[in-house]
Amino acid sequence: MSYAFRLFCAIYGHQPVLDAEQAQTADVWIRYAPGSAQGQQPRPTLKLSSLYQSRSLYEAAPPPKRFEREGESTVLFYSPLPGQEPDWLGEIFEWVSSADEYSVRARDSVGRVAFAETYLGRHKLDARIPYAAVAMRFLQRALCRLAPGAVAEPRSPVESAGHFVIPTHDVDYFPGSHLNSVYRVAKNAAISCWLYKSAALGMKQAGMALRRAAGGPDPLDQIPALAQGESRRNVSASYYFLLKRYHRRDANYDLSQPGLTDAMAALERQGFEVGVHGSYTSLDEPSELAAQFDSMRARGFRPLGGRQHWLRFTLDRLIPAHERARALYDSSMGWPDRLGFRSGACFAFPPYNFEEERPATFIEIPLVMMDQSLQVGPGEESDWYHQVAELLSVSRRYGWGGISLLWHPAAFGGGWLSHAVGDVFWRLMDSRNERQETWLSAIEFVRSVRQRYIEVGLLSEEYGSAEPEEPVQQPSKGEFVAA
Questions:
Q1: Does 445 share its domain with 476?
Q2: Whole-model pTM?
Q3: Exposed, middle or buried by CB within 10 Å (0-12, 13-18, 19+), for 47?
Q4: How do residues 339-348 score in pLDDT, each as one tens digit?
């Protein structure tokens, strides 16, 4: 439980004290066992019910139970006895570690764990609720009752930044041959008609394909306009490029594409981040993702993170692959077809490495929405902006963020998705100050907050260096105290 305790301290800005000899320096104690440290003056103490039970990763988590206190409700994996405090650290660990997801053996046609098979899907829970953050809030409120005057809200590592949002762009299309662009736009027209049931959009795209065939502009070539719009708004973003093309579901380009490295270098010169979009099969071999990071490094770039193509991953492969790649972060944990918090987290966190029983050596930046989820999801076009804005407001309510939004460059201009999808992105960015948001690239975010995770012991002091980090040694489960 030290992992969950340290993470709680990172989000709320507490100083964790796990050494019993230093317990007297803490303002509040959290215990699973009664009594006080031998020979020490007792401190205000919160006793948690010891309910979490370790289990095989092939065993599903227990079903959720409703819980309500002080007008706020949530669900618990473990119900306490009447009058007892829930095992909030156990609840946080279950959500953020995604332990239940390891038990899911079914895969969709892409090779992913489908939403319907996840804990949220099976138990029909609302994915737009950050359950781990809710558990943290209940825990903080319980501590505040013991320490009147304590700040009840999470404390951002950057005083001037109330809520971090990371705009990201997976580059799944790069302009190449004239014929290829005509084919792609014509194919999108057919998909719009038959899959999205939008004949009007399909007809518009068919017209774009005809104009492109006649020598007109490529409607999918949107990187320059996108970067220009972000620069004009003084917002940096992260652009993730595919480097290999092994599978038909990979992009229409690879690193040998003429003009690709020039475009990547141009983005870096403008202050944008260039990262790795792990190819469709990059996790099928243990060393392939690391090889793709190295391939980008060999061309003079310094990729520090990225996202998996098609969100094709399982956690047992994603975590060790990013550690081998010496990545500082990943942003794959989300869904392609819905908004929400996959690990119950509206905050960034080092994933839990079950194989070695420790935090991973990189930070996960949760992906809370993808552009296409607006077009395939419920709700009218006029509601799309409000859906995403409300999700961001929920995240803001429970903390200081560290969540990512994904808009593919090709999602702008109407050549793939509706024009309205791109408009939502710009409207969200233009209204960011109203929601007290700081929009910045993933690596800028990591550099801004990493010291907080180092101070609580979730990341090593060497985090961010060119060499792989050593595993952070965690104390065994026992007594926890918080300053």
A1: no
A2: 0.93
A3: middle
A4: 999 999 999 9
Angle between helices 384-398 and 131-146 (to 10 degrees): 30
Residue 465 domain flag: no
Distance from chain centroid for Cα 438 = 16
- Mean pLDDT for the chain overall: 93
Q: For the stretch 392-411, what's the b/e string if a residue is b when 16 or more beta carbons lie within 10 angstroms of its beta carbon?
A: bebbbebbbbbbbbbbbbbb
- Residues 232, 143, single domain; the answer is no
What span, in angstroms and rounded, lies between the C-alpha atoms of 445 and 448? Answer: 5
Task: Mark whether 439 and 329 lie in a shared domain.
Answer: yes
Q: Check which CATH number belongs to the domain holding 218 and give it.
A: 3.20.20.370
**Cα dihedral angle (133, 138, 143, 149), rounded to 10 degrees?**
90
Summarised one tens digit per residue, pLDDT across range 152-202 is: 999 999 999 999 999 999 999 999 999 999 999 999 999 999 988 899 999
Do residue 74 and residue 189 come from a single domain?
Answer: no
Q: Dump pLDDT digits (tens) for 256-297.
A: 999 999 999 999 999 999 999 999 999 999 999 999 999 999
- Show the domain range for 330: 164-455
Let me know whether 248 and 112 are in one domain: no
Q: Alpha-carbon dihedral of residues 335, 3, 238, 257, nearest 10 degrees?
A: -80
Residue 170 β-bridge partners: 240
Q: Are residues 184 and 292 located together in one domain of the fold?
A: yes
Instruction: Report the number of distinct structural domains present in the chain.
Output: 2
pLDDT tens sequence across 353-375: 999 999 999 999 999 999 999 99
240, 309: one domain = yes
**What distance in Å separates the CA atoms of residue 106 and residue 269, rounded to the nearest whole number?**
44
